[in-house]
Amino acid sequence: MSTPSRLSVNVNAVAVLRNRRDVPWPSVTDMARIALTSGAKGITVHPRPDERHIRKTDVENITQLIRTSFPSAELCLEGYPSAEFLDLVEKNRPAQVLYVPDDPTQTTSDHGWDFEANAELLKDVISKAKSWGVRTSLFVDPDPSQPALAKEVGTERIEIYTGPYGACYGDKVAAEAELDKVIATAEAARDLGLDVNAGHDLTVDNIPALIARAPYITEMSIGHGFVADSLIYGFKESVNRFRRALKEID
Predict the structure, then answer these.
(1) Is residue 250 domain-resident?
(2) By the 8 A CB rule, do 207 and 181 touch?
(3) Sorting pLDDT into bands at 50, 70 and 90, what band is 2?
(4) 200 catalytic, yes or no?
(5) Catalytic-role residue among 78, 159, 219, 248
(6) How far apart are CA 235 and CA 83, in angstroms?
């Protein structure tokens, strides 16, 4: 039995590997094609100003790939809403933009928005995205007070930062405590009418407990854990493995 996928494969790590050499392989676009052909819902990329992994050309190529070959799939552009990033969103019109409060030098997204300090900024950039026909999502900490603040600035979705949960891979008690925070946040968002995404350090081992308690999660964006898994099993089989963890296929 198969159900629509919630898996969005983040291919940043593929770009990191490619960028170690002045060669075009591994092709970010080709790996995105394999993920989508294998049943992933979509592709997520987080282009940074220095293009240390995903490049603007990658965004353009994946946009074209989805439009021509996978029209039912989704591209999610993740990034801090700088003028340069907003220009990329406007030009490519992805299905979704995930605004994250990253400093350009950060290795990865590791905290949610401070809504009190950034409310006006977020209202403005959410309005811009909506005018381009792009769905918005905001990165939030696993804290049930956050969804109400996210809704106030006008977003349609939140993505819950699951890094603290994923970091407890060796401690079941701590993992359960962190999962409780994620679930409380997801429930608060659902009760407010917000769609719920989740992402960061999710694996085939820790997804089942999360999805069992929050089966209404709309999307999981998975990059590092997915690419690490694919080094053993291959991109195609890793899509299957993550979809099994999500209870989407047998």
Answers:
(1) no
(2) no
(3) low
(4) yes
(5) 78
(6) 34
